[in-house]
Amino acid sequence: MLAEPASINDESKRLRILVRSFIRFLVAYQAVQILIFLSYSVPHRFFSSYILGFMLASTGFHVFIFILLYIFRADFVIEPSGRKLDRVNKANAITLFRLSTLPTILYIILASKDYPMRYQLVAMVALVFATDFLDGYVSRRDKETTRVGRMMDSASDYSLLFVITLVFYYFHIIPLWFLVLLITRLAGQGMMIVAVLAIKKRVTPKTSFLGKATVASTMVLYAFELLRFVANIPPVAFTTLERIVGLIIAVSIVDKVIMMAKDLGAPEQPALKTGRLNPLVNGDSNGSDKERA
Fold first, then answer.
1. How many domains does the structure of the chain reveal?
2. 213, 161 in Cβ contact below 8 A?
3. Which of 290, 102, 140 is nearest to 205 (CA)?
4. Of 54, 104, 119, 200, which has the fewest Cβ atoms less than 10 A away?
């Protein structure tokens, strides 16, 4: 009988240490983002024009990330061993860095409309995309795939897609209908997760084939759209590809609604002691071949 209070105290201590780890990483990443912004804004002389908006957006976004990490702090659990973490591990730290860069990318891309820095911008975006492969590699190498990492990885991919979509529409690169369709897909997924959490109190992060197809095809489209500025390609080629990718996104919306309906109708899983995310069963991720931490 005496072991239970000691166990509760140990768990509370672990979570306090974990939360302090969140704070240390996010404060450090905020500082890194400020340095990155300075490295672009000072040489190109757009510091004074964008610094206030950047600081508000970046600081607010890091606070938002902390709130989410705090809500899901009990899901920093290694799968399938069930070992609980008391610190952010390497792969999760890489994923958090990718999320941390989103406001920085947004403001640097916006500034690039008036200040020439094409190659520096491409280098930054390439670095961010590289981390998408790095965190998966590190998690597999170290055998430290976590429940919360699966959710963070998908969130970082969709968040990056959301930022680039807004920027492309701002520069009149993509049409309004495509913007509305993609935001419907991204926002709809977020609302579905919230709905499942509200009703079932738990959610299973899943990556479907059509979800991966949405991300991959949209990024291919965006890379192709940039050829408008360097190559003489008929406008019909861009329109055709936009419609094809739009069809993939529309089908993926239907697929996501079906997945949510199945989640809501699924029988209750055995209650777990901690966390809001269900562990994968037999490693199944609904079609995903990427183990993320």
1. 1
2. no
3. 290
4. 119
